[in-house]
Amino acid sequence: MALEDKISALPDDILLTILSLLTLKQAVATSILSPRWRYLWTSLHTLNFRYEEILHRNDDDTDNEWGCKIYEADYMERFMQVVNQVLRSHKAPKLHEFGIHYPLDASRGDLIDIWVAFAIAFKVSKLELNFSTNQVPIWVCSFKNYSFPLYFFDKTKRIEPYLVQLDRVFSVCTPPLNVDNGFECLRELILKSVDLTDEQFETILSSCTFLEFLHVLYSSRLVNVKHAVPHMKLKSLEMYRCFQLKKLEIFAPNLVSFKYLGPKINISVKDAKQLVHACMRSNWETWEFSRTNSLGLPNMQRGDFVFGQFAAYLPQIEHLVMDASSFGRTKVLDNGPLLYNLRHLSLSSLNFADGPFGILGCYEMVASFVKVSPFLHRLELHFELYPLQDPELRRIAVSPHNYLKEVLVSGFSGNKLVVDLIMVVFDFAIELEKIEISTAYLGDPSKCTISLKPDDDFLVRKSIEQLHGRMPAKAQLYILDDGL
């Protein structure tokens, strides 16, 4: 007796929820199950095109070989064909998510424009254009970031010409579009290796009045970003590796999270009374600016980058991310208020002994923050690159801390200086419950750093055993690497 297919009898909305848990490729593959499933995937509300899921990778391809192949013309054409075929078949009246994850550049701009217009026409809530990759082959020397058309997000300019192209190229009939409504549906915008001008950045915030999350990575044309009118819905702003940026001013009264990684620039976050998550990471610079930048503004010195520009917000911050080069042996923590709200502190440094970026500076930061953060719960220490020397760590007096329960150490190479620093933490974190150790560097908030593994596994294992013997009684040790 044939088994009854009870799943296919479920309503469309339930089946679409099930399909949304699959990758797009897997969802399309369900079309062969039965006539009931044949066109069901065309009503998906989420379309995320990821090259890792769409293109075939040989089992023996190394990461480097695969990273080179995706820049080849036949792979790129195959990816674009899949996107176009799916858009032609799409039937849902609205999109929740639309994402392109492939290192496409400006040469494919005309097609990308149409894809974005498609997403806006179907009132997308989350739009992600990820044209970034960690591995760019040396021979890809002409890669130029895609840029939006100048007035693409300007509500006073119409995007109907792009919708006409949708109908002509894809035979896609878009729903009736009130452009204002299309932009007002956008809640999350993620742009990686997409070039924006200062004017376009301002236009996006002005047009997308319900935008809650904005993430920008590797945008090379931003210089002087300013949004002076209060954006009442924006809750999270992330600006990573925009290396030409000289000044950033944002007025978002309901901003909860601000994350920045890049040059030490002038940053003004105005009237953010809800701000509780702050990441202020600078580049690893070998010298400190002493001149003005191209806008005639003085570049930030080390201690001013965080403590000067964000001093007013420090008492309300719950999660703070910064690096050793931004500490500058400042006395602001000693002379300022206690940080009663700080629960989670993440500090990064190079695995060097001396200099403004080194472990000794990181140690001073740890000691200073622990003294003024009585309710600190989690401490993360991230060390990039390998150590060159291991001088003795001169201890700083730190009183026992009763609330610090979790410690994460990444970029652990087993060298004596790092081991000594961790043992210092053991001495004052008397209620420590968990310590996590990873040889991979996990301190890049933009997740663009290719982590290097230490060559000496024996030293790593030996140092971990040494730490295990010195841990507080209640603490558990967790190794995050396979094979250690």
TrEMBL record:
Matches recorded under InterPro entries: At1g61320/At1g61330-like (IPR053772), F-box-like_dom_sf (IPR036047), F-box_dom (IPR001810), LRR_At1g61320_AtMIF1 (IPR055357), LRR_dom_sf (IPR032675)
Coiled coil ranges: none
Domain F-box as annotated: residue spans: 4-54
Name the record gives this protein: F-box domain-containing protein
Phylogenetic placement of the source organism: Eukaryota, Viridiplantae, Streptophyta, Embryophyta, Tracheophyta
